[in-house]
Write a structure and sequence with these properties.
The chain is 38% helix and 22% strand. The protein is α/β, with parallel strands linked by helices. A hairpin with a 5-residue loop joins strand 9 and strand 10.
Length: 309
């Protein structure tokens, strides 16, 4: 019975919604999914899958839409390219090409129409079944040395229910996120979530603790999502379903806890933050930093002096 219980509560599956249109990055995303935009030399989506795998989530379901075929191709084998690199004995590049296809079992389901994050998660119900699962949003990259997902899974195993990642933001930013009303627990990095508000006005935010794109969801959320009416923006909001679960006890799919995250997070959801992410990743790469950092310092000095030539 103990082994059966562990198999039910163990988190091994991840849902990654990738059906968005990426309108903030047009015209680049007219034919290229925003998730495939490179962070130096690796598409953003690969970092997200690597994070899932490092936390023990080796079964990944991507919720896709139209014009997302290149994502599927990226996580598939590229035999002609691999053979060409093998003939050239270019082993480093060959391994980098194979890496994405060997990461995890990756599955795909199409979201027929853009009805919000909650609807995208609901599209994964048949694949997930009655197991708890993770949701990772591709706009948020978590530092490679962070263990946020592992910690969230631990909290799920301790408290049951669902777990969300929370990060403290500046007051003027709360209206960009879902924000949580929280109550402390005996663990300094864990809180009980008592309420959630999607993108509240600054003066109505319950706290400065904002939901970032990492969730561990109890399977009971699917029944809630099926009954959740469209909310903000006319979309089915995952936040609204979690808000309902926060009011419930363990027998009904609740409660909801939050992990207070103070580590490194990169936002790639808009142009400026995307550029910051690329620069930071480049500066942290040993194979690039030695050449890139001196150039960057020189560029900034020339920029401040009024010349970039």
């Amino acid at each position: 019975m103990a082994d059966e219980q562990r198999s039910v509560t163990q988190v091994t599956k991840a849902i990654i919604p990738v059906a968005g249109l990426g309108t903030r990055f047009l015209p680049a995303t007219k034919s290229t999914p925003k998730e495939m935009l490179p962070i130096v030399d690796k598409p953003a989506i690969q970092y997200v899958v690597e994070e899932a795998v490092s936390a023990g989530l080796d079964d990944v379901l991507m919720i896709t839409g139209r014009n997302k075929r290149s994502i599927e191709d990226h996580f598939d084998r590229a035999y002609e390219l691999e053979e060409a690199l093998r003939v050239k004995a270019d082993i480093d590049r060959l391994n980098s090409v194979r890496e994405s296809s060997d990461l995890a079992q990756v599955h795909y389901v199409r979201q027929g129409e853009p009805r919000g994050l909650g609807h995208a998660v609901l599209c994964g119900a048949a694949h997930v079944g009655g197991e708890p699962f993770a949701v990772l949003l591709g706009d948020d990259l978590i530092g490679a040395r962070e263990t946020l997902l592992k910690r969230m899974i631990e909290v799920r195993q301790t408290y049951g229910g669902s777990v969300i990642a929370l990060m403290e933001v500046e007051p003027e930013q709360v209206s960009l996120y879902g924000c949580a009303a929280i109550r402390p627990t005996d663990e300094p990095d864990v809180v009980t979530v008592t309420d959630l508000v999607e993108k509240p006005p600054v003066d109505q935010a319950p706290s400065r603790w904002a939901i970032i794109g990492r969730y561990i969801c109890d399977p009971g959320i699917f029944d809630v999502l099926r009954k959740t009416p469209p909310g903000r923006g006319g979309e089915i909001q995952l936040t609204d379903a979690l808000r309902e679960l926060a009011r419930r006890g363990p027998a009904e799919g609740g409660p909801v806890h939050g992990v207070l995250f103070r580590g490194q997070r990169y936002d790639t959801g808009n142009k400026v933050d995307y550029l910051r992410t690329v620069v930071e990743f480049a500066c942290e790469r040993p194979d690039l930093a030695e050449e890139f950092l001196p150039w960057l310092r020189d560029f900034l000095a020339r920029h401040e002096a009024g010349s970039t030539r």
